Amino acid sequence: MQSEKQDPVNYYVGIDVVTASVRAALVDQFGTIVAHADQSIQIWEPKPDHYEQSSDDIWAACCTVTKKIIQGVDVAWIRGLGFDATCSLVVVDKQFQPLAVNYEGECKRNIILWMDHRAASQVDRINGTQHSVLSYVGGVMSVEMQPPKLLWMKENLRESCWEKAGYFFDLPDFLSWKATGVTARSLCPLVCKWTYSPDKGWDDSFWKVIGLEDLVADKYEKIGNQVLSPGASVGNGLTPEAAKDLGLAEGTAVAASLIDAHAGGLGVIGADVKGHNLPCENQPVTSRLAVICGTSSCHMGISDAPIFVPGVWGPYYSAMVPGFWLNEGGQSATGKLIDHVVRGHVAFPELQAKAAASAQNIYTYLNSHLDLIKKSLPVGFLTVDLHVWPDFHGNRSPLADLTLKGMVVGLTLYQGLDELALIYLATIQAIALGTRHILETMQSAGHHISTLFLCGGLSKNPLFVEMHADITGKPIVLSKEVESVLVGAAILGACASGDFASVQEAMERMGKIGKIVLPNHRDKRFYDKKYEVFLKLVEHQREYKAIMQGV
Q1: Which phi and psi (to 5°) does residue 46 adopt?
Q2: Cβ contacts of 215 within 8 Å, gap of 6 or more
Q3: Dihedral angle at the C-alpha atoms of 200, 201, 205, 209, nearest 10 degrees?
Q4: Residue 359 exposure: Cα atoms within 13 Å on the Cβ side
Q5: What is the DSSP letter of 286?
Q6: Residue ranges in 157-235 assigned as alpha helix (H)
Q7: Residue 28, Cα to own-chain centre: how many angstroms?
Q8: How far is CA 220 from the centre of its chain?
């Protein structure tokens, strides 16, 4: 795995824990992924809106995939390790053993997954306080953040979990602890999901007013009172036990971690764009929006000064790129929504069979099928009478309304493969229209964004990328390495090793541009009309909810 001249090459391991799997990559100093592996992890859903995982299961998967990617490599060349993960809540006792976060008492299930919405009533009460810290989460805290989940545990699992708990970790921080034995937390999850302030620290009054004064009493030991910037070296690197588990050398540098979407942003947003005639060329990095699109989607915009955007999380200082403020928009279900719509359709078995017969995955087949039925029109025009509101799992941004539901307008009695292809297209368009809604809200508040940088699983779908370009009217930049989140995690490891002077330098050196997709401005009027309908849908939903209120 050396270069042609046999020059020494430095390598870094990036480990990415997404909703349903753990992925790892071996990345060289130029940002090239030279080995990649993944393994699925278990999700339990004991009741509606309750989603749980196991920290033991996740760590075992981290070890398996790491050992796979380093086969045949001298571990002395591996200079650093970086973790990113979903912002899920890990609970352990004072001896760091798993504690059950469920009524069944199953200690193995000690993680409340990020998409768990069990704490809906708790978050309503937290938002009812109108505490000043809420201004840094778009004015309204999300049920996906950690304070409401902590309050739910105190109110529902007081004896079995809350009183026995020794530590509450965000999953990225749990992984760095597991690797180093150090309980220091990363600034990224603490600022974004726990209300920590980089300059003021924890706000005692917030925790007291929401009923979690217990955390103040022990000086925040359970949720973190030592905080590091993302990419900073944690402790003395890998412990002997962790090194053996992972197959790496003891003492290998381990970085303070990032939330998965933020690692994706790190992997794409700083890439050199010279010579591509993009509007963001020779402009500050603040003109770029990173969109990390997988199970859910996150929209990461940075600024030199804090910008308060209603319904959009942040501003968070240094939560992704050191020295910049971050605003984070998002959609709670995107890849998951597309799967839900496609797999739940009566024509799905026919789709499966035809895709298998043509040796294609189902989405490649659907894209080809749409090309067959579009005739002379642009493919997007097929949904002139079919419209989707995509909030099947509530609206994260910019409306910040957990109670919103999905909508489909324009259904007929036909249920064949053509209709499945059309609802698939309309769902992708709805997600892109939601991105436009977030983008316009951010721009109205003071962001100046000219170019979108996409990464994540959905960025591999050319129809998804095309619809985002056409509907937002912005050029789309795709990374040379499709797995930009893994590159972002490896960038953290590179920074922890000391091989780069700063996160910004590592971003520029290791982030590489791949394909560029330009919007088709000839279709602008059509998508402007689609957007107008899109906004009307949520108006109508709120109207009928008001009519039915109190029934």
Answers
A1: -65, -25
A2: 150, 207, 222, 223
A3: 140
A4: 0
A5: G
A6: 171-180, 187-193, 204-209, 213-217
A7: 24
A8: 26
SS3 502: coil
Three-class DSSP category at 245: helix
111-112 vs 297-303, strand pairing mode: unpaired
> Running along the chain, 551 residues long, what does each successive block of 10 average in pLDDT?
57 97 97 97 97 98 98 96 98 98 98 97 97 93 96 98 98 98 97 95 98 95 97 98 98 97 93 92 96 94 97 94 94 97 98 98 98 94 98 95 96 97 98 98 98 94 98 96 93 97 92 94 97 97 92 77
Going by C-alpha positions, the residue among 467, 481, 531, 493 that lies closest to residue 31 is 481
E strands in 419-475: 451-455
| Polymer length in residues for the chain | 551
Q: 344-396, pLDDT tens digit by residue?
A: 999 999 999 999 999 999 999 999 999 999 989 999 999 999 999 999 999 99
For 383-421, write each residue's pLDDT tens digit.
Answer: 999 999 999 999 999 999 999 999 999 999 999 999 999
Element (H, E) at 434: helix 417-445
- Token representation of residue 311: 């319904």
Residue that has been written with the tokens 């001298």 in this structure: 74
What is the rounded CA–CA span in Å between residue 2 and residue 249? 19
Contacts for 15 with CB less than 8 Å, ≥ 6 apart: 22, 23, 24, 62, 65, 66, 81, 82, 83, 84, 175, 489
Burial degree of 158 (CB within 10 A; 0-12, 13-18, 19+): exposed
**What would you measure as the largest C-alpha separation in the chain, in angstroms?**
76
